[in-house]
Design brief:
Radius of gyration: 22 Å
Low-confidence stretches: none
Mean pLDDT: 87
Helix content: 25-40%
Strand order of the largest sheet: 1-2-3-4
Strand content: 35-45%
Structural class: alpha+beta
Number of strands: 4
Number of helices: 1
């Protein structure tokens, strides 16, 4: 992973994933510095907003593909 910062692009190398204080914590190193990210219940609304548009787009694309595939399938009429 790469992290953008005021001093440039730095690699973030995750080293540990843990449940801590009611949240999830990812510990690792960013460049030469130890770093961690903690996600807890208060972050869920922001995460939901972040994934909502891509999820809706994926759902719409899937619906279009299935619709096109269904129309392209030959129909068998039992007359």
């Amino acid at each position: 992973m790469r992290v953008s910062s005021p001093i440039g692009e730095l690699p973030f190398e995750p080293q540990r994933l843990a449940l801590k204080d009611g949240g999830v914590e990812i510990s690792g190193v960013m460049g030469a510095w130890p770093a961690h990210v903690r996600i807890d219940a208060t972050d869920l609304p922001a995460l939901a907003r972040t994934v909502a548009k891509p999820a809706a787009a994926l759902f719409a694309l899937t619906a279009v593909i299935f619709g096109l595939a269904r129309r392209a399938r030959p129909r068998h009429d039992n007359d």
